[in-house]
């Protein structure tokens, strides 16, 4: 059995080059990476080091210029628009720095949308969304419009939305970047708890040391390359 | 192994998902009230114009037909075979009674027998070339409007009496009860003259018609023309839309070897052509109007897409397919069209109800012509088909206008969309 099939995510020689009229930028340069189910991994590095690009590539929002990405043994590096959408729908949950919730929907409806995409029936949707909002501590605010929620509450809704479809991977791009430190820590703690309870793999990016410290494994990026990849030991 | 479309579930848009898109679209329209209101108002105004113009066009066509056909032509005419318009030769119908039977069998009750011939009217030292019409006053009144156009004297036509127009009377210096002479060529080719008394004056408002018509009773005309019991034409009144059908019925009873049955489209082809030209011009106007509507909706929807780049990027990240994004944008575009169609239809219907009752007086905008003999007030005639057409065009335009923005939204690069500020 190859390494690509026994691991959850495997990147081999992944490169992403952006071309402009005058020059080209190598955002990710020959990255090799393997991740396993249930890991809680942080991507760290300075701005422009390729953190977001790598998350987009793994989440099939972008495609590598060269190299391959396998997910559960399947090559996902060249999917069509529709195929990548259907892959994300069932396998990946996203959490964004700016929350990216649908402003005209309530907290409940934002979370429910993923289940609608998955074709889940009304009764099952109600049950699962209610439980998920309860799990992120927002049961009381389920019917509130997004615009009536604080930044921390909105990010909790985003976490609930990312996890409601039971994805095996959650990708979080600077999930605490727009939050104060206390709220930010509560969000990363929430992600950590859900990772432990559900066994969902979480790959998040951050440059906040307090947030980075929550990860089991730290991958440091610089100039699009991994220059450090190690397991973190928590010092109590 | 490469992951392909066939191993992935949930490709279709479920009714629940479409319902959610409807909800999102509706709330977004309400969220941007001012912009939505302006777009809906602009499109609704176009729908309003389309409905009102269509109804006025219907009314105009109805008035044109009513006027042109009730002046003299009628909806259907029967002549002897070989008849040609403007011919001077008297061509009597073979058996007038057969025509009466045929009309009754076809269910046509309003018809008028006539004997027509060219004549010269002489009054003192004045004379004028005219067209003589021998009529049965009662039957003629059921087909044409001459009786309603009497302005002096009476509509009665006893032997030795004639009706002429006020215009002709003025030109010949004649008045009620004055005498004048009619000179004709009889059925046998002989010149005949006789004295008549003017018993009534009519005025249709159409000079070319008024200056050339002289009415006398059918019996008097038959005597004058030496055409005992003869008629040269039967004109019938019936709904113009049924002309072809009824003419077909008549032809079953009147053999083409002896009779010529003609509909108003054949008798006054310029009227049918003018109406067709009106329709074609109107269709062109509709295309221009709704091209502007389409641009308005497309502009609004493009702005919507631009403002919501990040939202569409997010939906794509969550797993919405390009088809799903298209459905969301199209739903919003169609909703705008639907609201506009409702608003435009309601206001347009209200305006048509008003215009059907009171109309628009075109007296000061038109010169006297054969299409406004009945009157110059143009009234709206709205049919359910007009309303359905206006709404169908509006929704089709909204859908077409939404296609490009929807396609653009579905092709957004999700990474760029998510980083859009």
Q: Could you explain the architecture of this structure?
A:
The complex is a heterodimer of chains A (236) and B (421). Chain A has a single domain, classed as P-loop containing nucleotide triphosphate hydrolases (Rossmann fold, 3-Layer(aba) Sandwich), CATH 3.40.50.300. Chain A has eight helices and ten strands. Chain A has helices spanning 3-6, 51-58, 81-91, 107-117, 122-135, 151-164, 181-198, 209-212; strands spanning 9-19, 24-35, 40-44, 66-71, 74-75, 92-95, 169-173, 201-205, 217-222, 225-231. A six-stranded mixed β-sheet of chain A has the order 6-7-8-3-9-10, with helices on both faces. In chain A, strands 2-1-4-5 form a four-stranded antiparallel β-sheet. In chain A, a hairpin with a 2-residue loop joins strand 4 (66-71) and strand 5. In chain A, 50% of the residues are buried. With 421 residues, chain B is of the alpha+beta class. Chain B has a six-stranded mixed β-barrel. Chain B has a two-stranded antiparallel sheet with strand order 11-12. Helices cover 53% and strands 18% of the residues of chain B. In chain B, helix 1 (15-31) packs across helix 12 (322-357) and helix 2 runs antiparallel to helix 10 (269-307). Chain B folds into two domains: 15-67 and 272-418, no CATH class; 91-103 and 110-237, Beta Barrel (Cathepsin D, subunit A, domain 1). Chain B is elongated, with a radius of gyration of 33 Å.
Task: Sum up the overall morphology of chain B in one term.
Answer: elongated
Which sequence of SSEs, written as H and E, runs from N to C of chain A?
A: HEEEHEEHEHHHEHEHEE
Q: Please work out how many helical segments of chain B DSSP would assign.
A: 14
Q: Give the termini distance of chain B in whole angstroms.
A: 38 Å
H-E order of chain B:
HHEHEEHEEHEEHEHEHEHHHHEEHH
């Amino acid at each position: 059995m190859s390494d690509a099939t026994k691991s959850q995510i495997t990147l081999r020689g992944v490169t992403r080059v952006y071309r402009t009229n005058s020059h080209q930028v190598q955002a990710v340069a020959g990255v090799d990476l393997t991740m396993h189910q249930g890991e809680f991994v942080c991507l760290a590095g300075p701005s422009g080091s390729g953190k977001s690009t790598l998350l987009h590539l793994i989440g099939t929002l972008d495609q590598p210029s060269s190299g391959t990405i396998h997910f559960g043994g399947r090559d996902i590096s060249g999917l069509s628009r529709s195929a990548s959408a259907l892959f994300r729908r069932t396998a990946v949950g996203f959490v964004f720095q700016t929350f990216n919730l649908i402003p005209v929907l309530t907290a409940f409806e934002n979370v429910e949308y993923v289940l609608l995409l998955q074709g889940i029936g009304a009764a099952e949707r109600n049950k699962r969304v209610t439980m998920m909002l309860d799990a992120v501590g927002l049961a009381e605010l389920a019917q509130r419009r997004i615009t009536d929620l604080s930044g921390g509450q909105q990010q909790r809704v985003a976490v609930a939305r990312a996890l409601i479809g039971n994805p095996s991977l959650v990708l979080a791009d600077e999930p605490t970047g727009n939050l104060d430190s206390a709220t930010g820590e509560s969000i990363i703690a929430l992600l950590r708890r859900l990772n432990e309870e559900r066994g969902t793999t979480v790959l998040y990016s951050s440059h906040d040391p307090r947030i980075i410290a929550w990860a089991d494994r730290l991958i440091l990026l610089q100039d699009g390359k991994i220059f450090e990849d190690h397991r973190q030991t928590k010092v109590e | 192994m490469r992951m392909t479309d066939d191993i992935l579930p949930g490709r279709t848009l479920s009714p629940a998902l479409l319902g959610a898109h409807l909800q999102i679209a509706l709330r977004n329209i309400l969220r941007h009230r001012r912009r939505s209101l302006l777009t809906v108002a602009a499109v609704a105004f176009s729908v309003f114009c389309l409905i009102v113009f269509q109804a006025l066009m219907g009314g105009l066509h109805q008035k044109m037909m009513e006027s042109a056909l009730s002046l003299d032509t009628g909806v259907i005419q029967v002549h002897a075979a070989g008849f040609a318009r403007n011919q001077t030769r008297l061509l009597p119908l073979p058996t007038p009674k057969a025509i009466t039977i045929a009309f009754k069998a076809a269910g046509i009750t309003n018809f008028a027998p006539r004997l027509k011939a060219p004549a010269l009217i002489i009054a003192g030292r004045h004379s004028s070339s005219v067209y003589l019409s021998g009529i049965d006053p009662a039957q003629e009144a059921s087909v044409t409007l001459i009786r309603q156009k009497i302005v002096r004297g009476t509509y009665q036509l006893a032997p030795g009496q004639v009706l002429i127009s006020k215009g002709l009377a003025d030109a010949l210096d004649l008045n009620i009860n004055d005498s004048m002479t009619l000179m004709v060529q009889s059925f046998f080719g002989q010149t005949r003259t006789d004295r008549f008394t003017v018993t009534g004056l009519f005025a249709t408002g159409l000079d070319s018609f008024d200056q050339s018509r002289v009415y006398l009773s059918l019996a008097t005309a038959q005597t004058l023309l030496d055409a005992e019991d003869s008629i040269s034409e039967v004109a019938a009144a019936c709904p113009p839309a049924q002309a072809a059908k009824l003419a077909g019925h008549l032809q079953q009873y009147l053999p083409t070897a002896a009779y010529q049955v003609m509909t108003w489209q054949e008798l006054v082809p310029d009227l049918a052509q003018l109406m067709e030209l009106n329709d074609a011009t109107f269709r062109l106007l509709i295309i221009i109007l709704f091209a502007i509507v389409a641009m308005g909706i497309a502009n609004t929807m493009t702005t919507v897409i631009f403002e919501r780049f990040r939202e569409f990027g997010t939906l794509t990240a969550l797993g919405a397919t390009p088809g799903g994004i298209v459905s969301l944008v199209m739903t919003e575009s169609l909703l705008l069209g639907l609201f506009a169609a409702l608003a435009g239809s309601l206001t347009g219907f209200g305006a048509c109800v008003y215009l059907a009752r009171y109309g628009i007086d075109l007296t000061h905008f038109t010169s006297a012509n054969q299409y406004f003999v009945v009157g110059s007030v143009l009234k709206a005639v709205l049919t359910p088909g007009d309303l359905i057409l206006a709404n169908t065009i509006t929704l089709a335009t909204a859908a077409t206008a939404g296609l490009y923005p929807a396609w653009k939204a579905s092709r957004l690069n999700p990474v760029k969309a998510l980083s859009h500020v």
